[in-house]
Amino acid sequence: VCPIDRSLKIMGQRYALHIMRNMILLKQNRFNQFLNSVEGINSKTLAIRLQQLEEYGLVERKVIPGKPAHTEYSPTGKGMAVQRILAEIASFSAKYEPEIIFVDRKPRNSGKPLFGTRNLSEVYDY
Asked: Which of 16, 47, 70, 73 gives 20 to 30 Å between its CA and that of 96?
């Protein structure tokens, strides 16, 4: 089995990386948060994707009792490792697609790792 093929089977599903990005960077943990922030996703696809991410061990699902009860999702240790993948993808776009993602249209490449410690929050200008 090719390790790239296996990784793409897990993370190559449509919206999987968007959901992980929002969990890790935006600290989202509720179904409706993902539904309202991942452009183009519908509730059926989101439910399937969250279930798959849980099966792959990237996401943990927790039912919070109360009235009404609700479900929260959080990245596991394995899921947090996706942060480096997301940072590399963002780094690629920052270097090769600056005219699309940056207002000043200038590439971000100084010869050293673009995001230093590779924290995903360093990718975005919040």
From this structure: 16
